[in-house]
Amino acid sequence: MTGFEPLIGAAAAGLGGLITSLVKDKGTETLKKLDWDIGKNLALKKAMVDYVRRYIDRYGTLKVACVRMDYPVRLDEIYTAVQLLDRSTLRYFESEEALQVQYRESGKRSFSVTQSEKKPGLQVANEQQYLMVLGGPGVGKSTFLRKVGLEALRTLGRRDFAGKDPGNLLVPQQIFYQHPFIPVMLELRQFDKANVSIQAVIATELDTCGFPHPEELTELFLKNGKLLVLLDGLDEVPSATLNHAITEIENLVDRHSDNRYIASCRVAAYTFGGFRRFKDVAMAAFEDQQIQQFIQNWFQKERDTEINTADRCWELLNSPDYQAAKELAQTPLLLTLLCVVYDEFQDFPKKRHALYGEALDVLLRKWASEKRIQRNPIYQELSAELELDMLAEIAYTSFVDDQLFFSKDRLINQIREFLIDNLNAPSHLDAETVLREIEIQQGILVERARDAYSFSHLTFQEYLTAKCIVDNNKIDQLVRDHITEKHWREVFLLVAGLAPGKGGADRMLLKMETQALAYVISEELKMLFSWAEEVTRGSEPEEISEHLKRALAIFLAIAIDIAYEANTNTYLNPFNRDSENILHHLDSSLGFALALGEDLELGSFLFGYHNNLTALLAEQIDNAINFEVDNILNHVVDSAFERVLLRASEITDTLWNYCVFKEHLVGGLVDDLALVRINISNHSIQSLSTSVLDVFSKNLHIPFENAIITEREAEQLLNYFSSLELIIRCKEAAVRVSPQVWEGIESRMVTVPTE
Question: Pfam families attached here (predicted)?
Fold first, then answer.
């Protein structure tokens, strides 16, 4: 049982009704002599059922072995409604520079920066009699054609079952196919000979199913506009017979224009000017709603529903660590790979390089192989290994130049230089031809506007950049030039995973440590680090790591110092412009520092949510001084006193419970805060705040004399802690790291660098 039985029976009956009516009204004498009553003519009934069943068996299920699908799934179960774009509105930009600006302003990883109106695919299929669907590899063109054909069968089934419900498969969706036509799927790669006739292929299909007089029936269907002709994969037609295929399709449409036609082609191969009557549309990349729906459709087994597998997968994909993986999910083929991987491990791998490498290999080799696409001979001479090296060089040089979009001329020159310089590359290969074949066959490089290209996914450019760095021993240069640059972060993680040999990433991590220490150069920062070591050393028990204790101590000291600064200024402007810049750097630094440990709640409590250092002093300073200056009623001022002391006590209790500082230091804090509370009546709100800050400063031996940290030092601190956080993430992404090397790095975190 496939679950399609209700649809097969209903669609076969609908098909029988359509043919009977058509033969009666328009059929030839030969056809009219036959008994078309499927209630009596069992052979004819079998032919109807076989036709519907063959379509469903071939196109109603999906199994994509190249993304590790071990078993077929019903198309209806996982299909996610696609969106189509009017191709004529896609190219707004005149240069790669304009694309670059638009991409940066979008704030997203996706290269799909168009704002063209999108329409549901089935809606467009209903509206357009002649439709050409364009898109890159794996975006779902063939699946969309299959789905429209399936919906046409569903419409045929409803044709003879109006007001009835012979199974859930006939229930209309929000948008359903409105035309009761007979679907015919033609895979155009079978046009491997110059004498293939589409009409003959259709007749052969009818003959295979057992229809009488298949040639006459085919002519009858076409002449009276009863077919939905699905022409899948124009780009898969061998180049030697492409002109014949185009002419054959054009002639068929001209001769039998009352039928409906939907064709598909990879956009890079659609260079002949297009079919005259056809509306050209492009498949839109999956958006969040579609990705989530696909995941929900994929994980709908009873056990998955019980444990909310789909929700957990979606939540993980949305986490900051997996934004690069989520970008791949915009392509249905690669989203399928992600779902299969998550289904197997209930997680995505920390070693992301393996996942991205597999995804790249799917487009480079496996997808074409699975679809049995014939490659042009000129391209076969460039081996897969050479091509990967060439793409890696292109990715690296562009990434170093901060160019995510690049001109066609630049690409051709890079390809030409690679072919000339590489002894194993065939020198006679034409660079422009190589670019075109990569674009058509694999879609790794995509033309985004006229003569302006990018990689299909930023994730692939990052992966290939990392490969080039590892293959060409550029790790030292990477660390020296880019350790603090945010857009290089994913490359660092991939390099760590790709690093070969025993202890793979050891050398890289040590180099990163050295570079991080270069930011701790001022005497003030060294003094602060030294103080943090002293006041946290030996605190027991070890609830959190020693380096996180030192980091928290540093930021608490800085926050108290900032509070002193604010407390001495007016309530209208507690921070000057330089201080605002400092706070911006420190807020970011704190976020990286908290990531050094796993207990993020501790840091959020001590310093306020959203990495906002000013939260520590907001209750004590800003509101309190406002109360004083505005001379608010005494009971409100008393409330402010209580909030100041309550916040101070909460911080003290947390420091005690987590053993951030030595026990006797926190004990002194507790005692002195109690004295401040006893003498609260002797304080104004501002002097109370100063007294509380004095208690922290004295008992923790904070090494400041009311001198706020400078903007330069705040920037150095940001670079240091962002580098440390990246070191930890690279360690997690690496395949092999020597335990001794890592223990040494970890023990030296947030300590004074040795000379």
Answer: NACHT, NCH2
**Helix, strand or coil, per DSSP, at residue 287:** coil
> CB count, 10 Å around CB of 248?
19
From residue 108, how far is each of 103, 398, 477 by CA, in Å?
A: 7, 19, 27
Q: Which two tokens stand for residue 347?
A: 């997680």
Give CA angle at 371 (369, 377), nearest 5°: 55
CA dihedral (9, 12, 13, 18) in degrees, to 10, reads 160
Q: Where are the domains of the chain?
A: 4-283, 288-348, 377-502, 519-748
Rounded Cα distance, 112 and 94, in Å? 16
CATH, domain range 4-283: 3.40.50.300
Q: How far is CA 369 from CA 64, 234, 236, 434, in A?
A: 11, 17, 12, 19
Interhelix angle 685-699/634-657, nearest 10 degrees: 10
Query: What is the CB neighbour count within 10 angstroms for residue 572?
Result: 8
For residue 142, pLDDT beyond 60: yes
Residues 59, 251: contact at Cβ < 8 Å? no
- What's the distance, Cα to Cα, between the start and end of the chain in Å? 75
Strand arrangement of the beta sheet that strand 182-187 belongs to: 118-120, 83-86, 279-283, 130-135, 260-266, 227-232, 182-187
Residue 710: per-residue pLDDT: 80
Half-sphere exposure of 504 (CA within 13 A, CB side): 18
Give the pLDDT score at 740.
94
In the predicted model, what is the mean pLDDT of residues 476-484? 96
- As a whole number of angstroms, the distance between CA 68 and CA 361 comes to 13
CA distance 259 to 238: 26
Lowest mean pLDDT among 1-5, 40-44, 62-66, 329-333: 1-5
Angle 380-385-391 from CA coordinates, rounded to 5°: 95
CA distance 87 to 132: 10
d(CA 375, CA 384): 13
Q: Which residues are bridge partners to 212 per DSSP?
A: none
Name, in order, each residue with C-beta under 8 angstroms of 247's C-beta and a sequence gap of 6 or more. none
| Average pLDDT value for residue range 262-275 | 89
Helix (H, G, I), strand (E, B) or coil at 178: coil
Burial 374-399 (b: 16+ CB within 10 A, else e): eeeeebeebeeebbbbbbbbbbbebb
Residue 173 pLDDT exceeds 60: no
What is the DSSP annotation of 23-85? HHHH--HHHHTS---TTT-HHHHHHHHHHHHHHHHHHSEE--GGGT--S-EEHHHH----EEE
For 530-578, the three-class secondary structure string (H helix, E strand, C coil) is HHHHHHHCCCCCCCCCHHHHHHHHHHHHHHHHHHHHHHHCCCCCCCCHH
Q: What share of the chain is helix, strand, coil (3-state, %, to 5)?
A: 65, 5, 30
Structure tokens belonging to residue 186:
């033609």
Residue with tokens 């003094």: 527
* pLDDT for 160: 55
Name, in order, each residue with C-beta under 8 angstroms of 403's C-beta and a sequence gap of 6 or more. Answer: 96, 100
The DSSP element (H or E) to which 118 belongs, if any, is strand 118-120
